């Protein structure tokens, strides 16, 4: 097993509907769409990286159906390869401080943030 490019504890996941906390460090929304019912002030975001979110077509195809999870992961990982510079930026941030990837999905186990975190920890 290879060593992660930064301490795993520096990368967190959090739903957009959970209040921000100082321990979140840098908060980055990683969804293509803004979370429904969440104001910009309440979101307390430092950045919005919608470019690294799954494409609209992939997001709609997946529809958060756990039966499509394995294929979603494969397709999303493929899309992420086109954003190496953004991924490197996130890794550099996580080397220096805590980064919280903010997402809006209800399913905390089958969503793009889970895949993105895994990709970021590999290198």
TrEMBL record:
InterPro entries: YeaO-like
PANTHER family: CYTOPLASMIC PROTEIN, CYTOPLASMIC PROTEIN-RELATED
Protein name: DUF488 domain-containing protein
Species annotation: Afipia carboxydohydrogena
Lineage: Bacteria, Pseudomonadati, Pseudomonadota, Alphaproteobacteria, Hyphomicrobiales
